[in-house]
Design a protein that fits this description.
- It is built from 4 helices and 7 strands, in the order E-E-H-E-E-E-H-E-E-H-H.
- The chain has about 150 residues and is an alpha+beta fold.
- The strands form 2 sheets. Strands 1-2-3-4 form a 4-stranded antiparallel beta sheet, covered by helices on one side. It has a 3-stranded antiparallel beta sheet with strand order 5-7-6, with helices on one face.
- The longest helix is centred in the middle third of the chain and has 11 residues.
Amino acid sequence: MLTAASTSAGALSLRPVEEAYDFEYFRDRLADPAVLADAVAICVFRAPLLAVPVRGLRRGGYMSFDLLSTALEARGLLADRPGFPSLRVRWSPYRDTCHTVEWGRPAPAWWEDDVVFGRFYGYSEAAIAAFVGHHYQPPRGLPPSRSPTVS
C-alpha cells in the first residue's frame, strides 16, 4: 500500500489508495475488498483514480486514458507493483475511444454478458445483480453476433 507522499513520474503520480475518487465504489462492490491493500491511486490531472490489482476472484483489470502518452506513463507507474502482472497498453485507433492499460488475464470477449465481466473483474454477486438489474441484457439463447455492426 502506498502511504507516503506521491511518487511522481511526469504528468501522473501515485497516491494512497484512500485518496482515489472511486475508492468507496470499488470497496463496496468487490467480492474481496482486501484486494485493495495492493491497489494504488493514479492521479491524472489532479484526479486520483483507483488501479485495482489482480488477486483472488479478480482475474484482470484496466484503466482508460485519452492520451496514448498518459497510458504509457501509467503502465510505467504500475510496472513491478504486486498485483499488476502482464501490463500492456491497448492502443485505440479511434479518436472517440480511449486507450487502456490492462493487466492480468485478457478480458472476456466483448459479446459476453455483464455477469461474465462482473465475475472476471471480481465483483460480488450482489453488485453484479444490482448492475444487471439496472442495465439492459440481451435475451439469453441468442447466438452472439461476431460483428459489432447491427444489420
